[in-house]
Amino acid sequence: QVQLVESGGGLVQAGGSLRLACAASGFYFSDYAMAWFRQAPGKEREFVAALTWSSDVANYADSVKGRFTISRDNAKNTLYLEMNSLKPEDTAVYYCAASRSGGRYSVPRAESLYVNWGQGTQVTVSS
C-alpha cells in the first residue's frame, strides 16, 4: 500500500523556520521524482518545489526560491523541505507527492503528473 506521511508542520512567527518531512512506503521511492505542493485557504493547490530521483535537479516556485530547500534521503525513503524566512503568505497545508515522470535531469512541476499524495501538514505563519 502506497503511503506518504507528512510531518513537521506547525505555528511559527514570520521570519522563522520549519523543516517538513515526508515518509514514503509501499513503492520504490528511489525511482520517483518527489515534490511539495501547498494549498492556502480559498486558493488552488500550487507547486512549491520538486526534486529528481537522483537529487541532481531541484525546481522551485519563484515565491519560495532562495528561502526553501528541497532534499531527499533515498536510504530512509524520506523527502524534506527546509523552510526559512517564512512569511504569512506561506501559510497553507503542505503536501508531498510522487511522480514517475521526468528523469535524472528533469523534474515535473505539473500537479497532474504526480500520482501519489500525502494527507498534508498545516503550516501557519503569524505576522
Summarize, please.
The protein is an all-beta fold. Helix content is 0%, strand content 48%.
Shape: globular
Radius of gyration using CA atoms only: 13 Å
Low-confidence stretches: none
Give the termini distance in whole angstroms: 40 Å
* DSSP E strands, number: 11
Could you explain how this protein is built, in words?
A hairpin with a 4-residue loop joins strand 7 and strand 8. 36% of the residues are buried. The chain is 0% helix and 48% strand. It is globular and about 40 Å long. The chain has 127 residues and is an all-beta fold. The chain has no helices and 11 strands. The mean pLDDT is 97. The termini are far apart. Strands 2, 4, 5, 6, 9, 10 and 11 form a 7-stranded mixed sheet that branches. Strands 1-3-8-7 form a 4-stranded antiparallel sheet, with no helix packed on it.
Write the SSE topology.
Blueprint: E1 3-7, E2 10-13, E3 18-25, E4 33-39, E5 46-51, E6 58-60, E7 68-73, E8 78-83, E9 92-99, E10 116-117, E11 121-126
Give descriptors for this structure.
127 residues, mainly beta, seven-stranded mixed beta sheet, four-stranded antiparallel beta sheet, 11 strands, 48% strand, globular
